[in-house]
Protein 1
Amino acid sequence: MIEKNLGRVERALRLLVGLALFLFILLAELSGAYLLVLTTIAIFLLANAVTARCYLWRWLGLNSCTNDECSELP
Protein backbone atom coordinates (compact mmCIF):
# COMPACT_ATOMS: atom_id res chain seq x y z
CA MET A 1 0.00 0.00 0.00
CA ILE A 2 1.27 3.49 -0.78
CA GLU A 3 1.88 6.15 1.83
CA LYS A 4 -0.69 8.84 2.44
CA ASN A 5 -0.23 11.73 0.03
CA LEU A 6 -3.38 13.86 0.39
CA GLY A 7 -3.65 16.66 2.92
CA ARG A 8 -6.75 17.68 4.86
CA VAL A 9 -7.85 20.41 2.47
CA GLU A 10 -7.53 18.21 -0.61
CA ARG A 11 -9.34 15.36 1.13
CA ALA A 12 -12.21 17.69 2.05
CA LEU A 13 -12.43 19.02 -1.51
CA ARG A 14 -12.46 15.53 -2.98
CA LEU A 15 -15.17 14.49 -0.54
CA LEU A 16 -17.34 17.49 -1.42
CA VAL A 17 -16.86 17.10 -5.17
CA GLY A 18 -17.53 13.35 -4.99
CA LEU A 19 -20.75 13.87 -3.04
CA ALA A 20 -21.85 16.71 -5.34
CA LEU A 21 -21.18 14.51 -8.35
CA PHE A 22 -23.33 11.71 -6.90
CA LEU A 23 -26.10 14.22 -6.24
CA PHE A 24 -25.84 15.48 -9.81
CA ILE A 25 -26.01 11.91 -11.14
CA LEU A 26 -29.19 11.26 -9.16
CA LEU A 27 -30.88 14.51 -10.14
CA ALA A 28 -29.90 14.45 -13.82
CA GLU A 29 -31.13 10.87 -14.33
CA LEU A 30 -28.20 10.00 -16.57
CA SER A 31 -27.78 6.69 -18.37
CA GLY A 32 -25.26 4.91 -20.53
CA ALA A 33 -21.63 5.92 -20.79
CA TYR A 34 -22.14 9.26 -19.01
CA LEU A 35 -23.51 7.48 -15.97
CA LEU A 36 -20.66 4.97 -15.92
CA VAL A 37 -17.90 7.57 -16.29
CA LEU A 38 -19.31 10.04 -13.75
CA THR A 39 -20.05 7.29 -11.21
CA THR A 40 -16.51 5.93 -11.56
CA ILE A 41 -15.03 9.40 -11.03
CA ALA A 42 -17.23 9.99 -7.98
CA ILE A 43 -16.24 6.64 -6.45
CA PHE A 44 -12.54 7.33 -6.95
CA LEU A 45 -12.84 10.82 -5.43
CA LEU A 46 -14.64 9.46 -2.37
CA ALA A 47 -12.15 6.59 -1.99
CA ASN A 48 -9.26 9.05 -2.18
CA ALA A 49 -10.87 11.27 0.44
CA VAL A 50 -11.44 8.38 2.84
CA THR A 51 -8.00 6.75 2.48
CA ALA A 52 -5.90 9.94 2.00
CA ARG A 53 -4.14 8.17 -0.88
CA CYS A 54 -4.14 8.91 -4.59
CA TYR A 55 -2.31 6.59 -6.96
CA LEU A 56 -2.32 9.17 -9.76
CA TRP A 57 -0.64 11.73 -7.49
CA ARG A 58 1.97 9.13 -6.51
CA TRP A 59 2.62 8.28 -10.15
CA LEU A 60 3.01 12.00 -10.93
CA GLY A 61 5.22 12.53 -7.85
CA LEU A 62 2.77 14.92 -6.15
CA ASN A 63 2.08 15.14 -2.44
CA SER A 64 -0.23 17.66 -0.74
CA CYS A 65 0.23 16.17 2.72
CA THR A 66 2.71 17.65 5.17
CA ASN A 67 4.63 15.28 7.43
CA ASP A 68 2.63 16.36 10.47
CA GLU A 69 -0.69 15.89 8.64
CA CYS A 70 0.19 12.45 7.34
CA SER A 71 1.25 11.13 10.71
CA GLU A 72 -2.03 12.34 12.32
CA LEU A 73 -4.33 10.81 9.69
CA PRO A 74 -5.97 7.48 10.48
Protein 2
Amino acid sequence: MRKVRIFSTPSCPYCLTLKEYLKEHDINFEDLDVSQDKNALDEMVEKSGQLGVPVVDIDGEIIVGFDKEKINQLLNIKE
Protein backbone atom coordinates (compact mmCIF):
# COMPACT_ATOMS: atom_id res chain seq x y z
CA MET A 1 0.00 0.00 0.00
CA ARG A 2 1.45 3.34 -1.03
CA LYS A 3 1.63 6.19 1.46
CA VAL A 4 -0.33 9.17 0.14
CA ARG A 5 -0.27 12.58 1.82
CA ILE A 6 -2.13 15.63 0.55
CA PHE A 7 -1.14 19.15 1.56
CA SER A 8 -4.27 21.22 1.08
CA THR A 9 -6.56 23.98 2.31
CA PRO A 10 -10.31 23.74 2.93
CA SER A 11 -11.08 26.53 0.43
CA CYS A 12 -9.12 25.05 -2.50
CA PRO A 13 -11.47 23.58 -5.16
CA TYR A 14 -8.66 21.53 -6.74
CA CYS A 15 -7.89 20.02 -3.32
CA LEU A 16 -11.51 18.99 -2.87
CA THR A 17 -11.65 17.48 -6.37
CA LEU A 18 -8.42 15.57 -5.76
CA LYS A 19 -9.64 14.14 -2.44
CA GLU A 20 -12.97 13.09 -3.98
CA TYR A 21 -11.13 11.45 -6.87
CA LEU A 22 -8.95 9.41 -4.50
CA LYS A 23 -11.97 8.40 -2.42
CA GLU A 24 -13.76 7.21 -5.59
CA HIS A 25 -10.79 4.91 -6.25
CA ASP A 26 -10.56 3.69 -2.62
CA ILE A 27 -7.17 5.31 -2.07
CA ASN A 28 -6.44 6.08 1.57
CA PHE A 29 -4.63 9.34 2.20
CA GLU A 30 -3.53 11.66 4.97
CA ASP A 31 -4.94 15.17 4.58
CA LEU A 32 -2.75 17.96 5.95
CA ASP A 33 -4.44 21.37 6.22
CA VAL A 34 -1.60 23.82 5.62
CA SER A 35 -3.84 26.76 6.53
CA GLN A 36 -3.97 25.49 10.13
CA ASP A 37 -0.76 23.47 10.50
CA LYS A 38 2.47 25.49 10.21
CA ASN A 39 4.65 22.37 10.37
CA ALA A 40 2.75 20.88 7.43
CA LEU A 41 3.08 24.17 5.54
CA ASP A 42 6.83 24.25 6.16
CA GLU A 43 7.15 20.61 5.04
CA MET A 44 5.13 21.29 1.89
CA VAL A 45 7.28 24.31 0.93
CA GLU A 46 10.47 22.35 1.63
CA LYS A 47 9.33 19.42 -0.54
CA SER A 48 7.67 21.35 -3.39
CA GLY A 49 9.47 24.69 -3.33
CA GLN A 50 6.20 26.63 -3.47
CA LEU A 51 3.07 27.69 -1.62
CA GLY A 52 0.43 26.48 -4.10
CA VAL A 53 -1.93 23.66 -3.15
CA PRO A 54 -2.65 20.86 -3.57
CA VAL A 55 0.70 19.14 -3.21
CA VAL A 56 0.57 15.34 -3.22
CA ASP A 57 3.31 13.20 -1.69
CA ILE A 58 3.11 9.59 -2.91
CA ASP A 59 5.89 7.58 -1.27
CA GLY A 60 8.19 10.60 -1.49
CA GLU A 61 7.27 11.49 -5.09
CA ILE A 62 5.99 15.08 -5.10
CA ILE A 63 3.20 16.19 -7.44
CA VAL A 64 2.12 19.83 -7.51
CA GLY A 65 -1.50 20.34 -8.44
CA PHE A 66 -4.10 17.76 -9.43
CA ASP A 67 -2.04 16.01 -12.12
CA LYS A 68 -4.44 13.13 -12.76
CA GLU A 69 -2.16 11.37 -15.26
CA LYS A 70 0.82 11.31 -12.89
CA ILE A 71 -1.35 10.33 -9.89
CA ASN A 72 -2.94 7.49 -11.89
CA GLN A 73 0.51 6.30 -12.93
CA LEU A 74 1.95 6.30 -9.40
CA LEU A 75 -1.13 4.74 -7.79
CA ASN A 76 -1.85 2.34 -10.66
CA ILE A 77 -5.36 3.74 -11.18
CA LYS A 78 -7.00 2.52 -14.39
CA GLU A 79 -9.84 4.61 -15.80
Protein 3
Amino acid sequence: MYYFYILYSKRRGRYYYGHTSDVDIRLKRHNEGWTKSTKSGIPWKVVYCEQYPTKSEAIKRELEVKNWLKN
Protein backbone atom coordinates (compact mmCIF):
# COMPACT_ATOMS: atom_id res chain seq x y z
CA MET A 1 0.00 0.00 0.00
CA TYR A 2 0.97 3.61 -0.57
CA TYR A 3 -0.20 6.79 1.04
CA PHE A 4 -0.74 10.44 0.22
CA TYR A 5 -0.20 12.45 3.39
CA ILE A 6 -0.31 16.00 4.67
CA LEU A 7 1.93 17.20 7.49
CA TYR A 8 1.60 20.38 9.48
CA SER A 9 4.29 22.39 11.24
CA LYS A 10 2.93 24.64 13.98
CA ARG A 11 6.38 26.21 14.23
CA ARG A 12 6.25 27.48 10.63
CA GLY A 13 2.48 27.53 10.15
CA ARG A 14 2.94 25.45 6.99
CA TYR A 15 1.72 22.25 5.40
CA TYR A 16 3.78 19.67 3.53
CA TYR A 17 2.28 17.22 1.01
CA GLY A 18 3.87 13.91 0.09
CA HIS A 19 3.55 10.21 -0.66
CA THR A 20 5.15 7.16 0.90
CA SER A 21 4.76 3.45 1.55
CA ASP A 22 5.13 3.92 5.33
CA VAL A 23 3.75 7.06 6.95
CA ASP A 24 5.26 6.40 10.39
CA ILE A 25 8.80 5.98 9.06
CA ARG A 26 8.41 8.98 6.73
CA LEU A 27 7.17 11.21 9.56
CA LYS A 28 10.08 10.08 11.72
CA ARG A 29 12.52 11.01 8.94
CA HIS A 30 10.92 14.42 8.45
CA ASN A 31 11.23 15.05 12.19
CA GLU A 32 14.86 13.88 12.24
CA GLY A 33 15.77 16.42 9.54
CA TRP A 34 16.37 13.98 6.67
CA THR A 35 14.44 16.19 4.24
CA LYS A 36 15.96 19.59 3.45
CA SER A 37 12.61 21.18 2.59
CA THR A 38 11.03 20.24 5.94
CA LYS A 39 14.02 20.55 8.27
CA SER A 40 13.14 24.08 9.40
CA GLY A 41 9.59 23.07 10.38
CA ILE A 42 10.40 20.37 12.93
CA PRO A 43 8.28 19.09 14.62
CA TRP A 44 5.78 17.94 11.99
CA LYS A 45 2.58 16.03 12.61
CA VAL A 46 0.34 14.07 10.26
CA VAL A 47 -2.97 15.89 9.82
CA TYR A 48 -4.36 13.89 6.88
CA CYS A 49 -3.69 10.59 5.12
CA GLU A 50 -5.24 8.61 2.24
CA GLN A 51 -4.39 5.02 1.27
CA TYR A 52 -3.87 3.82 -2.33
CA PRO A 53 -3.09 0.38 -3.80
CA THR A 54 -0.28 1.67 -6.04
CA LYS A 55 2.50 4.23 -5.82
CA SER A 56 1.37 5.90 -9.04
CA GLU A 57 -2.10 6.53 -7.61
CA ALA A 58 -0.64 8.11 -4.45
CA ILE A 59 1.62 10.34 -6.56
CA LYS A 60 -1.32 11.29 -8.78
CA ARG A 61 -3.29 12.37 -5.70
CA GLU A 62 -0.34 14.37 -4.34
CA LEU A 63 0.02 16.24 -7.63
CA GLU A 64 -3.73 16.82 -7.80
CA VAL A 65 -3.78 18.49 -4.37
CA LYS A 66 -0.65 20.52 -5.12
CA ASN A 67 -2.27 21.77 -8.34
CA TRP A 68 -5.35 22.91 -6.39
CA LEU A 69 -3.07 25.06 -4.26
CA LYS A 70 -1.55 26.76 -7.31
CA ASN A 71 -4.95 27.97 -8.52
Protein 4
Amino acid sequence: MPVVSVLMPVYNAERYVKEAINSILNQTFKDFELVVLNDASSDSSKEIILSFQDARIRYIENEHNRGLSFSRNRLLSEVTGEYIAWLDADDIAHPTRLEEEYRFLEEHSNHAMVASWARLIDSEGKPTGNYIKSYIPDEYLSALLLFVNYFVQSSVMLRKSQLPEVHYRPEFPPTEDYELWVRVAAQHEVAILPKTLVDYRIHTTNISSLQQQKSEKAVKLNHKMQLENLGILPSDEEVNLHYNIAFKKAENLAFLQLTADWLHRINQQNEISKRFEPKALHYILAHRWIKVCTSNKALGVKALKLYFKSKFAEIRLRNTFLIMQYILKSK
Protein backbone atom coordinates (compact mmCIF):
# COMPACT_ATOMS: atom_id res chain seq x y z
CA MET A 1 0.00 0.00 0.00
CA PRO A 2 1.34 3.48 -0.82
CA VAL A 3 1.73 5.86 2.11
CA VAL A 4 0.22 8.84 0.26
CA SER A 5 -2.75 8.91 -2.11
CA VAL A 6 -2.64 11.95 -4.37
CA LEU A 7 -6.08 12.79 -5.74
CA MET A 8 -6.65 14.74 -8.96
CA PRO A 9 -10.11 15.60 -10.34
CA VAL A 10 -10.05 16.47 -14.05
CA TYR A 11 -12.59 18.21 -16.23
CA ASN A 12 -11.64 19.63 -19.63
CA ALA A 13 -8.06 20.31 -18.55
CA GLU A 14 -6.24 19.24 -21.72
CA ARG A 15 -3.99 22.34 -21.62
CA TYR A 16 -2.67 21.65 -18.13
CA VAL A 17 -3.22 18.07 -16.96
CA LYS A 18 0.02 16.70 -18.41
CA GLU A 19 2.10 19.22 -16.50
CA ALA A 20 0.09 18.61 -13.33
CA ILE A 21 0.61 14.82 -13.53
CA ASN A 22 4.32 15.20 -14.28
CA SER A 23 4.73 17.45 -11.25
CA ILE A 24 3.55 14.55 -9.06
CA LEU A 25 5.50 11.83 -10.85
CA ASN A 26 8.68 13.90 -10.40
CA GLN A 27 8.34 14.30 -6.64
CA THR A 28 11.34 13.59 -4.42
CA PHE A 29 8.97 11.53 -2.26
CA LYS A 30 8.23 8.26 -4.09
CA ASP A 31 5.82 6.24 -1.93
CA PHE A 32 2.54 7.41 -3.43
CA GLU A 33 -0.29 6.58 -5.79
CA LEU A 34 -1.91 9.14 -8.06
CA VAL A 35 -5.66 8.62 -8.51
CA VAL A 36 -6.95 10.64 -11.45
CA LEU A 37 -10.71 11.01 -11.97
CA ASN A 38 -11.98 12.21 -15.33
CA ASP A 39 -15.36 13.89 -14.83
CA ALA A 40 -16.61 13.11 -18.36
CA SER A 41 -14.38 15.65 -20.08
CA SER A 42 -15.38 16.59 -23.62
CA ASP A 43 -11.82 17.47 -24.68
CA SER A 44 -8.72 15.27 -24.97
CA SER A 45 -8.06 15.05 -21.21
CA LYS A 46 -8.77 11.30 -21.13
CA GLU A 47 -6.31 10.52 -23.93
CA ILE A 48 -3.60 12.63 -22.28
CA ILE A 49 -4.07 10.90 -18.91
CA LEU A 50 -4.04 7.41 -20.44
CA SER A 51 -0.88 8.21 -22.40
CA PHE A 52 1.12 7.94 -19.15
CA GLN A 53 2.62 4.52 -18.60
CA ASP A 54 3.28 4.62 -14.88
CA ALA A 55 2.08 1.98 -12.42
CA ARG A 56 1.56 4.63 -9.73
CA ILE A 57 -1.34 6.16 -11.70
CA ARG A 58 -4.88 4.84 -11.25
CA TYR A 59 -7.47 6.13 -13.68
CA ILE A 60 -11.19 6.28 -12.98
CA GLU A 61 -13.99 8.21 -14.66
CA ASN A 62 -17.55 9.36 -14.23
CA GLU A 63 -19.97 8.18 -16.90
CA HIS A 64 -21.34 11.69 -17.14
CA ASN A 65 -20.34 15.03 -15.66
CA ARG A 66 -21.12 15.10 -11.94
CA GLY A 67 -19.33 18.23 -10.76
CA LEU A 68 -16.47 18.87 -8.39
CA SER A 69 -18.05 17.95 -5.03
CA PHE A 70 -19.18 14.54 -6.29
CA SER A 71 -15.82 13.92 -7.97
CA ARG A 72 -13.81 14.86 -4.88
CA ASN A 73 -15.96 12.58 -2.72
CA ARG A 74 -15.60 9.71 -5.18
CA LEU A 75 -11.84 10.18 -5.17
CA LEU A 76 -11.84 9.99 -1.37
CA SER A 77 -13.65 6.65 -1.59
CA GLU A 78 -10.70 5.34 -3.64
CA VAL A 79 -8.00 6.25 -1.11
CA THR A 80 -5.68 3.47 0.02
CA GLY A 81 -2.89 5.56 1.57
CA GLU A 82 -2.51 6.74 5.14
CA TYR A 83 -2.29 10.33 3.93
CA ILE A 84 -4.39 12.18 1.35
CA ALA A 85 -2.94 14.92 -0.86
CA TRP A 86 -4.78 17.01 -3.42
CA LEU A 87 -3.67 18.57 -6.67
CA ASP A 88 -6.09 20.16 -9.12
CA ALA A 89 -5.49 19.40 -12.79
CA ASP A 90 -4.41 22.95 -13.65
CA ASP A 91 -2.01 23.43 -10.73
CA ILE A 92 1.62 22.37 -10.27
CA ALA A 93 3.32 20.73 -7.28
CA HIS A 94 6.90 21.75 -6.57
CA PRO A 95 9.31 18.76 -6.42
CA THR A 96 9.63 18.57 -2.61
CA ARG A 97 5.98 19.20 -1.80
CA LEU A 98 4.96 15.66 -0.80
CA GLU A 99 8.21 15.03 1.03
CA GLU A 100 8.00 18.16 3.18
CA GLU A 101 4.32 17.77 4.04
CA TYR A 102 4.68 14.05 4.80
CA ARG A 103 7.66 14.75 7.06
CA PHE A 104 5.71 17.43 8.92
CA LEU A 105 2.74 15.14 9.63
CA GLU A 106 5.06 12.30 10.67
CA GLU A 107 6.81 14.63 13.12
CA HIS A 108 3.58 16.24 14.39
CA SER A 109 1.25 13.38 15.22
CA ASN A 110 -1.33 15.74 16.76
CA HIS A 111 -1.88 17.53 13.45
CA ALA A 112 -4.59 16.33 11.08
CA MET A 113 -3.75 18.55 8.13
CA VAL A 114 -0.98 20.64 6.64
CA ALA A 115 -0.87 23.00 3.66
CA SER A 116 1.65 25.43 2.23
CA TRP A 117 2.02 28.81 0.61
CA ALA A 118 1.19 29.04 -3.09
CA ARG A 119 2.62 31.05 -5.96
CA LEU A 120 0.01 32.42 -8.36
CA ILE A 121 0.52 31.75 -12.07
CA ASP A 122 -1.59 32.84 -15.05
CA SER A 123 -3.25 30.71 -17.71
CA GLU A 124 0.08 30.54 -19.58
CA GLY A 125 1.99 29.38 -16.52
CA LYS A 126 3.78 32.68 -15.92
CA PRO A 127 4.13 33.87 -12.29
CA THR A 128 1.89 36.85 -11.58
CA GLY A 129 4.14 38.10 -8.80
CA ASN A 130 1.46 37.36 -6.21
CA TYR A 131 1.27 34.64 -3.56
CA ILE A 132 -1.20 33.14 -1.14
CA LYS A 133 0.58 33.29 2.20
CA SER A 134 -0.45 33.15 5.82
CA TYR A 135 1.61 34.66 8.61
CA ILE A 136 -0.97 33.71 11.23
CA PRO A 137 0.44 31.33 13.90
CA ASP A 138 -0.84 27.80 13.32
CA GLU A 139 -2.62 27.63 16.66
CA TYR A 140 -4.88 30.51 15.53
CA LEU A 141 -5.83 29.12 12.09
CA SER A 142 -9.14 27.63 13.23
CA ALA A 143 -10.26 31.07 14.41
CA LEU A 144 -8.96 32.66 11.20
CA LEU A 145 -11.35 30.44 9.22
CA LEU A 146 -14.21 32.33 10.85
CA PHE A 147 -13.40 35.05 8.31
CA VAL A 148 -11.11 33.80 5.53
CA ASN A 149 -9.50 30.64 4.15
CA TYR A 150 -5.76 30.47 3.45
CA PHE A 151 -5.69 26.69 2.90
CA VAL A 152 -5.01 26.24 -0.82
CA GLN A 153 -6.74 23.02 -1.91
CA SER A 154 -3.84 21.95 -4.13
CA SER A 155 -1.38 22.25 -1.26
CA VAL A 156 -3.30 20.25 1.34
CA MET A 157 -2.22 16.91 2.84
CA LEU A 158 -4.32 15.32 5.60
CA ARG A 159 -4.56 12.12 7.57
CA LYS A 160 -7.16 9.72 6.24
CA SER A 161 -7.96 8.63 9.81
CA GLN A 162 -9.00 12.17 10.79
CA LEU A 163 -11.12 12.97 7.75
CA PRO A 164 -14.70 13.77 8.83
CA GLU A 165 -17.29 11.11 8.08
CA VAL A 166 -19.10 13.58 5.82
CA HIS A 167 -16.62 14.82 3.26
CA TYR A 168 -17.34 17.57 0.73
CA ARG A 169 -20.87 18.91 1.15
CA PRO A 170 -22.64 19.72 -2.14
CA GLU A 171 -24.44 22.78 -0.77
CA PHE A 172 -21.18 24.78 -0.60
CA PRO A 173 -19.85 24.86 -4.20
CA PRO A 174 -17.56 26.29 -5.40
CA THR A 175 -15.97 26.70 -1.94
CA GLU A 176 -16.69 23.23 -0.55
CA ASP A 177 -13.04 22.86 0.44
CA TYR A 178 -13.30 25.89 2.77
CA GLU A 179 -16.24 24.31 4.59
CA LEU A 180 -14.39 21.02 5.00
CA TRP A 181 -11.30 22.73 6.43
CA VAL A 182 -13.54 24.49 8.99
CA ARG A 183 -14.76 21.13 10.28
CA VAL A 184 -11.29 19.57 10.30
CA ALA A 185 -9.76 22.55 12.13
CA ALA A 186 -12.58 22.56 14.70
CA GLN A 187 -11.54 19.10 15.88
CA HIS A 188 -7.80 18.86 15.19
CA GLU A 189 -4.64 20.91 14.95
CA VAL A 190 -3.75 22.18 11.48
CA ALA A 191 -0.78 24.01 9.97
CA ILE A 192 0.38 26.00 6.96
CA LEU A 193 4.06 25.59 6.13
CA PRO A 194 5.78 28.94 5.45
CA LYS A 195 7.11 27.62 2.14
CA THR A 196 5.89 27.89 -1.44
CA LEU A 197 5.27 24.29 -2.50
CA VAL A 198 2.64 24.69 -5.25
CA ASP A 199 1.76 26.91 -8.19
CA TYR A 200 -1.90 27.89 -8.17
CA ARG A 201 -3.30 28.87 -11.55
CA ILE A 202 -5.55 31.91 -11.86
CA HIS A 203 -7.91 32.01 -14.86
CA THR A 204 -9.00 35.62 -14.66
CA THR A 205 -10.64 35.61 -18.07
CA ASN A 206 -12.79 32.62 -17.12
CA ILE A 207 -14.30 33.97 -13.90
CA SER A 208 -17.85 34.96 -14.78
CA SER A 209 -20.08 37.17 -12.67
CA LEU A 210 -22.27 34.11 -12.06
CA GLN A 211 -19.31 32.17 -10.64
CA GLN A 212 -18.42 35.12 -8.42
CA GLN A 213 -21.99 35.24 -7.15
CA LYS A 214 -21.96 31.50 -6.42
CA SER A 215 -18.68 31.82 -4.56
CA GLU A 216 -19.92 34.76 -2.48
CA LYS A 217 -23.16 32.93 -1.66
CA ALA A 218 -21.25 29.80 -0.56
CA VAL A 219 -18.83 31.77 1.63
CA LYS A 220 -21.72 33.60 3.28
CA LEU A 221 -23.41 30.27 3.97
CA ASN A 222 -20.14 29.08 5.50
CA HIS A 223 -19.90 32.22 7.64
CA LYS A 224 -23.50 31.78 8.77
CA MET A 225 -22.86 28.16 9.77
CA GLN A 226 -19.78 29.12 11.79
CA LEU A 227 -21.57 31.97 13.54
CA GLU A 228 -24.43 29.62 14.45
CA ASN A 229 -21.89 27.13 15.86
CA LEU A 230 -20.54 30.02 17.91
CA GLY A 231 -24.03 30.66 19.27
CA ILE A 232 -25.03 33.66 17.13
CA LEU A 233 -28.12 33.37 14.94
CA PRO A 234 -27.27 36.11 12.43
CA SER A 235 -29.74 38.00 10.27
CA ASP A 236 -29.04 38.32 6.55
CA GLU A 237 -27.82 41.84 7.22
CA GLU A 238 -25.36 40.57 9.84
CA VAL A 239 -24.10 37.83 7.52
CA ASN A 240 -23.47 40.48 4.87
CA LEU A 241 -21.65 42.62 7.43
CA HIS A 242 -19.45 39.69 8.46
CA TYR A 243 -18.64 38.95 4.81
CA ASN A 244 -17.76 42.59 4.16
CA ILE A 245 -15.50 42.67 7.22
CA ALA A 246 -13.67 39.69 5.77
CA PHE A 247 -13.33 40.86 2.17
CA LYS A 248 -14.27 44.51 1.60
CA LYS A 249 -12.61 47.79 2.52
CA ALA A 250 -14.32 50.24 4.86
CA GLU A 251 -16.49 52.66 2.87
CA ASN A 252 -17.11 55.07 5.74
CA LEU A 253 -16.72 55.59 9.47
CA ALA A 254 -20.17 54.13 10.11
CA PHE A 255 -18.93 50.82 8.72
CA LEU A 256 -15.98 50.93 11.11
CA GLN A 257 -18.33 51.42 14.06
CA LEU A 258 -20.49 48.52 12.90
CA THR A 259 -17.35 46.42 12.59
CA ALA A 260 -16.21 47.31 16.11
CA ASP A 261 -19.61 46.39 17.56
CA TRP A 262 -19.75 43.12 15.61
CA LEU A 263 -16.26 42.00 16.64
CA HIS A 264 -17.12 42.70 20.28
CA ARG A 265 -20.31 40.67 19.96
CA ILE A 266 -18.37 37.71 18.53
CA ASN A 267 -15.90 37.92 21.39
CA GLN A 268 -18.64 38.12 24.03
CA GLN A 269 -20.51 35.15 22.56
CA ASN A 270 -17.31 33.10 22.53
CA GLU A 271 -16.94 33.74 26.26
CA ILE A 272 -20.24 31.89 26.63
CA SER A 273 -19.90 29.13 24.03
CA LYS A 274 -16.10 28.69 24.27
CA ARG A 275 -16.09 27.68 20.61
CA PHE A 276 -12.59 29.12 20.11
CA GLU A 277 -9.64 29.31 22.46
CA PRO A 278 -9.93 32.91 23.81
CA LYS A 279 -6.35 33.92 23.01
CA ALA A 280 -6.69 32.64 19.44
CA LEU A 281 -9.96 34.45 18.82
CA HIS A 282 -8.66 37.70 20.33
CA TYR A 283 -5.63 37.53 18.03
CA ILE A 284 -7.82 37.05 14.95
CA LEU A 285 -10.31 39.76 15.93
CA ALA A 286 -7.45 42.19 16.56
CA HIS A 287 -5.91 41.19 13.22
CA ARG A 288 -9.20 41.79 11.43
CA TRP A 289 -9.73 45.12 13.21
CA ILE A 290 -6.41 46.65 12.13
CA LYS A 291 -6.93 45.45 8.55
CA VAL A 292 -10.39 47.02 8.32
CA CYS A 293 -9.32 50.28 9.97
CA THR A 294 -6.42 50.74 7.54
CA SER A 295 -8.27 49.54 4.43
CA ASN A 296 -9.37 52.94 3.13
CA LYS A 297 -6.86 55.80 3.23
CA ALA A 298 -9.62 58.29 2.39
CA LEU A 299 -10.97 57.96 5.93
CA GLY A 300 -7.78 59.51 7.32
CA VAL A 301 -6.95 59.88 11.00
CA LYS A 302 -10.62 59.62 12.01
CA ALA A 303 -10.36 55.89 11.28
CA LEU A 304 -7.35 55.62 13.59
CA LYS A 305 -9.22 57.41 16.38
CA LEU A 306 -11.91 54.73 16.13
CA TYR A 307 -9.25 52.04 15.98
CA PHE A 308 -7.72 53.01 19.33
CA LYS A 309 -11.11 53.10 21.07
CA SER A 310 -11.51 49.34 20.67
CA LYS A 311 -10.21 46.65 23.03
CA PHE A 312 -8.76 45.01 19.92
CA ALA A 313 -6.37 47.89 19.28
CA GLU A 314 -2.83 46.63 19.84
CA ILE A 315 0.64 48.08 19.53
CA ARG A 316 2.53 45.34 17.74
CA LEU A 317 5.37 45.68 15.26
CA ARG A 318 3.15 44.71 12.32
CA ASN A 319 0.29 46.93 13.49
CA THR A 320 2.65 49.88 13.91
CA PHE A 321 3.91 49.34 10.36
CA LEU A 322 0.35 49.24 8.99
CA ILE A 323 -0.60 52.39 10.89
CA MET A 324 2.47 54.30 9.72
CA GLN A 325 1.91 53.16 6.15
CA TYR A 326 -1.74 54.21 6.39
CA ILE A 327 -0.82 57.66 7.73
CA LEU A 328 1.68 58.25 4.93
CA LYS A 329 -0.82 57.21 2.25
CA SER A 330 -3.55 59.37 3.78
CA LYS A 331 -1.55 62.57 3.39
